[in-house]
Amino acid sequence: MPETFATTGTIAAIATAIVPQQGSVGIVRLSGMEAVNIATKLFQTPGKQIWESHRILYGYIRHPQTQVVVDEALLLLMKAPRSYTREDVVEFHCHGGIMAVQHVLKLCLEGGARLAQPGEFTLRAFLNGRIDLSQAESIADLVGAKSPQAAQTALAGLQGKLAQPIRELRSRCLDLLAEIEARIDFEDDLPPLDYKYVMAEFAAITAAINGILATADRGELLRTGLKVAIVGRPNVGKSSLLNAWSRSDRAIVTPLPGTTRDVVESQLVVGGIPIQVLDTAGIRETDDTVEKIGVMRSQKAADSADLVLLTIDASQGWTVEDGEIYTKVNHRPLILVINKIDLALPENVNYPPEIQDTVETAAAVNKGIDALEIAILKKVQLGKVQAADLDFAINQRQAAALVKAQISLQQTQVTIEQNLPLDFWTIDLRDAIYALGEITGEEVTESVLERIFARFCIGK
After folding, report:
1. In CA terms, which of 4, 79, 274, 306 is 20 to 30 Å from 430?
2. Exposure string (b/e) for 384-404, b if CB count within 10 Å is 16 or more?
3. pTM of the model
């Protein structure tokens, strides 16, 4: 780990989300050598409570000079190394809201602590050897999880299910490097190198890397989710589809065309994948200024969506206007939703033959929603993203490191096949070892750490 990135001093931050007039508890966290000293100056415990590690104390937070009570609170003391950061950690569990926790944080800073940087508590846990870098990233993923499956995947990473295979692969590469270098230094004293074994081991390590890389797309999908835009002419049932799908009245539904004037958003989870659904204004030519803005926003939503649900009215069939909208959105992955099949036979809808993915719905009577979700998951799977459960899923940084390791190993195999001297074998093999070490943090630069922890919240 880089010495130049070591953190010093005692840090403090609010460790819970603070919303005005909401939340029953707010936590202010301290970590560092002066954490306990600062806490004893601020916290008064009635009776004969014992200040010892991993004990919860009850009392009052007072201003150290005026002795004015700031809050009635609980204090949790965790002495090093049995803490999140492996330093002395103190947490003030205050009443929720804004004022109490901000006042307590101000007193901590006045008492000698400094405000923590984003992710600095977790950074200290990494620098102090409590967790590796992949586990630190899993903590951020767990905090930001948008679905139970995303949370479970992050938790698996936190438990070391990614780090373990990466360390094993790196260890195997190190063993190969030791065997090769031993032949360079002591060739006359050792038996000849088993070329078949070396090549087989390289192939096995590369295959294992490929298996881990296969989780990258699913991991990205679980973290970021899909953006799905419902588009179509006015009054084809887009808002009804959103309401039926989300099981709520998110969008206003009337028989009048042009009711939806802006993009209405709903958050759903389908097959473990977070989905942001955008119900857009009906796309048509209009002289209404407000509706015209809504149409422009609809087009923008469709252009930025991962998947477009082009919705048409089965009772009217495929119209010229549907065709015009289709030409505007067919550059995106698309599913044709034939809505209102309770009013007409969908076989009478003559849509363009190049549209392969279709779903029949009757949103007003909650029919076809399950089929729509199945079609979306099928579309996702065709994009080579597996919906099956996995023990872990790598992120983009980890995938990039694995690709570097993969390329280096392949280059090493080429070097061997070209019968180049053993010294040449070690060059690319060392690069592969370094790339694998970047994932867990055995090999890491200050700039990498800054990029990783910058996306954390301050209190974590």
Report:
1. 4
2. ebebeebebbbbebbbebbeb
3. 0.76
